[in-house]
Design brief:
About 45% of the residues lie in helices and about 20% in strands. The chain is built from 10 helices and 9 strands. A 7-stranded mixed sheet has the order 1-9-8-2-5-3-4. About 30% of the residues are buried.
Length: about 290
């Protein structure tokens, strides 16, 4: 798989788009029917007033973007620093530096929205005394796990298994510089961790609260990544403040604000969110 990705990455991005739309899209959507039941169920629950025809339109739009995103992830192997700076523009990144330095670290919360793999390039645009860490869930497949490491470390990020995060944070606290942690925070919680529910996309939804807890414990500011796609293969990235004085925030409020910002992004362009994830598996009245 990694060898195939490397070979395909040699193709121009336009050719990758054409390949994914002409071959992979019909294969995923019509032949394999990759998670179509999950996607349809998620969209129907989140947009209950939509007609069957509109849900189908949203479904196809998601799969078309999903294939574009696959092309962009593959292209990550060879994209130049100059090109990715042209394709991913960060706005207001310098405004984060003061609060993060003052507190010795911080959190960036984002969802599975847009080409989140390209956002890892922010690691190359930070001051030298900033140490970026991407928190991830270790893959069951060793090959997939190595591929994830290669793609993200190529952009200058350090990967930390989520199960080892607290240990690393304690150790990093004693080191010089500011340590910045990137958290994909719209993951589905485990059945044994359904303590915090938020009204999200028209339904009660459980959210993981790790960032909420750790930010208040370590007194780290928290920011949200607001992603816009002005044109195909181009992203504008803005940073919204979730919390500066995290210990003063009520328990769960950081998570609530993240959910609100993410919902606003999704409603702006629903096709950019990962609808194939079984995000709404748990129901509050069933657990």
């Amino acid at each position: 798989m990694r060898g195939l990705v490397r070979i395909l990455s040699l193709l121009p991005l336009g050719v990758l788009y054409a390949l994914m739309q002409g071959l992979v899209y019909p294969l995923l959507y019509y032949v394999v029917r990759y998670r179509r039941k999950v996607v349809k169920k998620n969209l129907s629950q989140c947009f209950p007033s939509d007609s069957t025809k509109e849900i189908k339109r949203r479904e196809k739009a998601f799969y078309h973007y999903f294939c574009d995103m696959l092309a962009e992830v593959i292209y990550s192997y060879r994209i130049s620093e100059q090109e990715i700076r042209e394709r991913v523009v960060f706005h207001g990144l310098e405004d984060l530096e003061g609060p993060i330095r003052e507190h010795g670290g911080g959190f960036i919360m984002l969802g599975h929205y847009g080409c989140w793999e390209w956002l890892a390039d922010v690691c190359n645009r930070l001051p030298e005394d900033f140490h970026p860490h991407v928190i991830y869930r270790k893959q069951k497949s060793a090959s997939s796990d190595r591929l994830m490491h290669e793609l993200r470390e190529k952009r200058g990020c350090d990967l930390i298994d989520k199960n080892l995060l607290l240990r690393h944070m304690v150790q990093n606290r004693r080191k010089p510089g500011a340590h910045l942690y990137y958290m994909l925070s719209d993951q589905k919680p485990s059945k044994h961790d359904l303590g915090h529910w938020v009204t999200f996309l028209n339904q009660e939804t459980p959210f993981i609260t790790g960032t909420d807890t750790l930010a208040r414990k370590f007194d780290y500011p928290v920011f949200y990544v607001d992603i816009r796609m002005p044109s195909r293969g181009h992203y504008d990235v803005y940073f919204k403040t979730i919390a500066i004085d995290s210990p003063s925030m009520p328990e769960g409020e950081i998570t609530n604000r993240f959910a609100t910002f993410l919902e606003e992004n999704i409603l702006l362009n629903p096709s950019l969110w990962l609808w194939s994830h079984n995000r709404f598996k748990w129901k509050k009245d069933e657990v």
